[in-house]
Design brief:
Layout lengths: L2 H14 L1 H9 L11 H11 L2 H8 L7 H16 L6 H6 L1 H19 L7
Helix pairs in contact: 1-7, 4-5, 5-7
């Protein structure tokens, strides 16, 4: 799997999993050896990997099918419209964030169904 594709997929996995967020963002029972935060997640996705350009121009080139791309667009809109909370715990527990997490789950299910390589 292409490096960019793998990194974007990892960020979507992070968005999809509140328990992973607790481990990475709050250091609760963190057995991963990794650290992250909401801010790092968003900056990495949108700045380092130019998520907007990826979804608009490159996802198709990387072999993602139209159903996955459509759901990626929705995730991007949801993330762009999200009002960040004061703490990472507030984000994890926020109902709007939970909707965003569910959207990420949906993407991963479609991505897997389209026989794409998995990160884990």
């Amino acid at each position: 799997m292409n490096h960019v594709l793998k990194e974007i997929r990892f960020r979507i996995i992070e968005i999809s999993d509140p328990e992973l967020q607790r481990k990475l963002w709050l250091n609760e029972n963190n057995d991963t050896g990794l650290e992250s935060s909401y801010d790092e997640l968003i900056c990495t996705l949108f700045d380092d990997f130019d998520f907007k350009k990826f979804v608009k121009y490159y996802a198709k080139e990387y072999g993602l099918d139209d159903s996955v791309i459509s759901e990626l667009k929705l995730l991007m809109e949801m993330l762009n419209g999200y009002s960040e909370k004061r703490t990472y715990l507030e984000i994890i527990e926020d109902q709007e964030w939970k909707k965003i997490s569910q959207q990420a789950v949906k993407i991963l299910e479609l991505w897997k169904d389209n026989n794409q390589d998995t990160l884990f």
